[in-house]
């Protein structure tokens, strides 16, 4: 009854599947840098180890693949480019969360060390004050007149 409301699965061409696979594999490698100019709609992936670069021009629906010998730029279907950009943005976000978590953990550990140092310092100060008080009391003479 509601079959015509059902969303059709995305069907990519053979070359689109191949390009999506290449980009997905690049995103899995931590050595791949992800840079973006979101206002201009440009996204850049580069992997220096594999001498491979991808430029995605989101506003123009163009993807450029570059290696040491060749550079190919093609215009693709808008939905395909949006799906590629979605994958790139998700990976960029995931990496940013990892960095954020790492920084947060470092700050928490630093705060804990500082807190422990302050507690130890206060305890040492209290011991010095007690020692001074006992020395001061021993030096006092009591007058019973």
Can you characterise this structure?
Helix content is 53%, strand content 19%. The termini are far apart. It is an alpha+beta fold and 145 residues long. Helix 1 runs parallel beside helix 2.
Instruction: Report the end-to-end length measured between terminal Cα atoms.
Output: 111 Å
- What average pLDDT do the residues reach? 85
Number of helices: 2
Secondary-structure element pattern, one letter each: HEEEEEH
Rg estimate, integer Å: 32 Å
| Main sheet overview | 5 strands, antiparallel
CA-based shape: rod-shaped
Q: Strand fraction band?
A: 15-25%
Let me know the number of strands.
Answer: 5
Tell me the strand order in the biggest sheet.
1-2-3-4-5
Helix content: 40-55%
Helix and strand composition category? alpha+beta
Low-confidence stretches: none
Helices and strands in order:
Layout: H1 14-28, E1 33-37, E2 42-47, E3 52-57, E4 62-66, E5 71-75, H2 78-139
Antiparallel strand pairs: 1-2, 2-3, 3-4, 4-5
Helix pairs in contact: 1-2
Defining traits:
5-stranded antiparallel sheet; 53% helix; alpha+beta; 19% strand; 5 strands; 145 residues
């Amino acid at each position: 009854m509601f079959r015509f409301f059902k969303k059709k699965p995305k069907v990519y061409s053979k070359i689109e599947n191949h390009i999506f696979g290449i980009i997905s594999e690049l995103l899995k490698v931590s050595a791949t840098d992800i840079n973006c100019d979101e206002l201009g709609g440009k996204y850049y992936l580069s992997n220096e180890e594999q001498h491979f670069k991808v430029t995605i021009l989101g506003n123009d629906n163009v993807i450029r693949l570059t290696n040491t010998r060749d550079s190919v730029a093609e215009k693709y279907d808008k939905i395909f480019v949006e799906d590629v950009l979605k994958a790139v943005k998700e990976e960029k976000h995931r990496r940013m969360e990892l960095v954020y978590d790492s920084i947060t953990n470092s700050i928490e550990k630093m705060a804990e060390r500082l807190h422990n140092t302050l507690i130890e310092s206060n305890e040492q100060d209290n011991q010095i004050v007690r020692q001074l008080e006992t020395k001061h009391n021993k030096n006092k003479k009591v007058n019973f007149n």
